[in-house]
Specification:
Blueprint: H1 2-10, H2 35-43, E1 50-53, H3 55-58, E2 72-75, H4 89-102, H5 112-125
Antiparallel strand pairs: 1-2
Length: about 130
């Protein structure tokens, strides 16, 4: 990955990464993998989130047929990465995931059940007074 980051910087390239790593069947946002954050840390270039909506209708997972469907592409403001570090990589991934989620239409956000389960886990970890 260091070679790729070096080539991107040296040749003034733009790199598009789909941080989920796979497409969801229902178009909902999946958890992000860490590769994009490692690339950002190594290149020190900003991350520019791009929100794609409707692609799951145009190209369904597991299908080779692409069908006409309205798509929306939304470019969000750049996120500076020059102070990012690998010891906080989970925080960086969460930041970009949260920003992406906030900019998706409700039907493409992760299901509320997943979010509620995470909140319940956090509550279980917090000691309570008896």
């Amino acid at each position: 990955m260091k070679e790729v980051a070096h080539a991107v910087v040296k040749n003034n390239l733009s790199l598009i990464i789909f941080p989920e790593g796979i497409r969801s069947k229902d178009g909902r946002l999946l958890p992000f993998k860490k590769g994009f954050a490692h690339m950002a840390i190594q290149s020190r270039l900003p991350v520019i989130p791009i929100i794609l909506t409707g692609t799951h209708l145009a190209w369904k997972k597991g299908c080779l047929h692409i069908r006409p469907s309205p798509l929306t592409v939304k470019y969000l403001p750049p996120i500076k990465t020059d102070d990012w570090s690998t010891d906080k990589i989970d925080d960086h991934v969460k930041l970009v995931h949260d920003i992406s989620m906030e900019n998706l239409p409700q039907p493409q956000r992760p299901p509320p059940l997943v979010l509620e389960e995470e909140e319940e886990e956090e509550e279980e970890e917090t000691p309570t007074k008896s």
